[in-house]
Design a protein that fits this description.
With about 325 residues, the chain is of the alpha+beta class. Helix content is about 30%, strand content about 30%. It folds into two domains: about 5-120, Probable inorganic polyphosphate/atp-NAD kinase, domain 1 (Rossmann fold, 3-Layer(aba) Sandwich), CATH 3.40.50; about 135-310, Tumour Suppressor Smad4, CATH 2.60.200. It has helices spanning about 15, 20-30, 50-55, 65-75, 95-100, 105-110, 110-120, 145-155, 160-165, 170-180, 250-260, 265, and strands spanning about 5-10, 35-40, 60-65, 85-90, 125-130, 135-140, 140-145, 190-195, 205-210, 215-220, 240-245, 270-275, 280, 290, 295, 305-319. The strands form three sheets. Strands 6-5-16-13-8-9 form a six-stranded antiparallel sheet, covered by helices on one side. Strand 8 and strand 9 form a beta hairpin. The radius of gyration is 20 Å and the shape is globular. The two termini are about 25 Å apart.
């Protein structure tokens, strides 16, 4: 019995390369001799997905887009009883889950045909899916503070007349660097308190003074286009790592780990970091929140606490 595969493409990802990608996929799938029944479809222009019930009719969903596209698909898959396997064609900027699965490197090196053939016969491995406040699912990371503030300001500012004019001679990375520089001195103006279960199932409490830069919760060994906050990440052990960035130097070194390939805690052992399977974080003030490349405006306004636990697993295709 042939497997049913859906290629779900965000047309605006990758500088709107999704439209051309669908045309190329339709031609490629038409000439390949496959044991799969393959369909291709777009998300809507604003990135919204087709119905969860439609996804449930496939054995595999291959998402073409950035981290935000993958995040939206995970929201749908996590609530299905029979979950399709998830494959990725990386079209975004961060592509963190695609880096972990090998898809990012193979697609860049080998091109579409070799990559699609490898993806359709790739090996699926379990991937933890975590849930924030019993509302929002994530697989890669969630966080509050500086990086979320930079992303928020970038998203708000990139459509202004000034930034549209600047886009003619600045690429997206350069524009993002501009918003990073503008926000370098941002601090969260309130104290934080964490309550979590340690390896012995004892409840621990950590208090962080006002002025920290950001807090990251990560569950895979890649963050923000390849940075490495933690060295003990495993994608299917039910655990996540919590990293507190208190100084500008720590933040700078976090992002340098994508170039020197040494996890942050080994570079800076003084960084506060712990591993757990459940976390409650008291956030008594206003700041920005993001998860898996998506910003969630007003998410923290519903209450001062963030509670994070593992919700389920999905199958991620490795190549």
């Amino acid at each position: 019995m042939s497997k049913k595969t859906l290629f779900l493409i965000n047309p605006v990802s990758g500088g709107r390369t999704g439209i051309r990608l669908k045309e190329s996929l339709d031609r490629l799938l038409g000439k390949l001799s496959l044991l799969h029944s393959c369909d291709t479809a777009f998300t809507t222009a604003d990135g919204q997905l087709i119905a969860r019930e439609v996804l449930a009719g496939y054995d595999t969903v291959i998402a073409a887009g950035g981290d935000g596209t993958i995040a939206q698909i995970v929201q749908k898959l996590a609530e299905l009883d029979k979950k399709p396997q998830l494959g990725i064609i990386p079209l975004g900027t961060g592509n963190d889950l695609a880096r972990v699965s090998g898809s990012y490197g193979l697609y860049k090196k080998k091109g579409l045909q070799t990559f699609v053939e490898a993806l359709l016969c790739g090996t699926a491995r379990p991937l933890d899916v975590f849930r924030v406040n019993a509302i929002l699912y994530f697989t890669n990371y969630c966080g509050i503070g500086l990086d979320a503030k930079i992303s928020n300001d970038y998203n708000l500012g990139r459509d202004t007349p000034f930034m549209r004019a600047a886009a003619s001679f600045l690429n997206g990375r350069a524009a993002y660097a501009w918003f990073s520089a503008v926000n370098l001195f941002y601090r969260m103006p309130f104290a934080l308190e964490f309550s979590y279960a340690d390896a012995g199932r004892q409840t621990r409490t950590v208090q962080i003074a006002a002025g920290a830069r950001q807090v990251l919760v990560t569950s895979i060994p890649s963050y923000a286009a390849g940075a490495r906050p933690a060295h003990q990440c495993c994608i299917a052990d039910g655990l996540f790592e919590v990293t507190v960035i208190e100084t500008l130097w720590q933040w700078f070194m976090l992002h340098m780990t994508r170039f020197i390939d040494i996890p942050l805690q080994r570079l800076l052992p003084s960084v506060k970091q712990f591993q757990t399977d459940s976390l409650t974080m008291n956030v008594p003030g206003s700041t920005c929140f993001q998860a898996d490349g998506e910003l969630y405006a007003g998410f923290l306004s519903e209450g001062p606490e963030l509670t994070i636990k593992r919700a389920t697993q999905i199958e991620l295709i490795f190549v």
